[in-house]
Amino acid sequence: MSERHRVTSVDQLSDSCGMQVDVGGHRIALFLIGKKVYAIGDRCTHAEASLAEGEVFDGAVECPRHGSEFDLRTGQPNSFPATRPVPVYVAEIDGSDVFVTVEPAEGEGGTA
């Protein structure tokens, strides 16, 4: 079952800069663009670099290691060398708080 977690306040996010957070066993990169927050998996699927450290432009983040770009809405890679998408999470602003909804990580809160 999905769980909604408060991860930070909007004041802690800078426009078009990433922030890495750990939520329910998931490592997530948060990005504030204008008045919308995006949440994607923080590990590049090509080389596992932190996407929170990448540059944001045109609705995508560029991996700081090899330059693959990932769409912030879909997680799909827009350029090589990455070919697999990163996870995308529901992120929302409620008042001054930022919430992310995740599924429990494997081995947490579920039965096998």
Report on this model:
This protein is an all-beta fold. The protein has a single domain, classed as 3-layer Sandwich (Rieske Iron-sulfur Protein), CATH 2.102.10.10. It has strands at about 5-10, 20-25, 25-35, 35-40, 55, 60, 70, 90-95, 95-100. Strands 1-9-8-4-3-2 form a 6-stranded antiparallel sheet, with no helix packed on it. Strands 5-6-7 form a 3-stranded antiparallel sheet, with no helix packed on it. The radius of gyration is 14 Å and the shape is globular. Mean pLDDT is about 90; it is low at about 110.
Mean pLDDT: 92
Got a strand count? Answer: 9
Which residue ranges are poorly predicted, with pLDDT under 50 across at least 5 consecutive positions? 108-112
How far apart the termini lie comes to 14 Å
Structural class: mainly beta
The proportion of residues forming helix, as a percent range, comes to under 10%
- State the CATH topology: Rieske Iron-sulfur Protein
What count of helical segments does DSSP give?
A: 0
Order of helices and strands: EEEEEEEEE
Report the CATH C-level class: Mainly Beta
- Could you state the CATH homologous superfamily? Rieske [2Fe-2S] iron-sulphur domain
Tally of individual domains: 1
Strand content: 35-45%
Characterize the overall form. globular
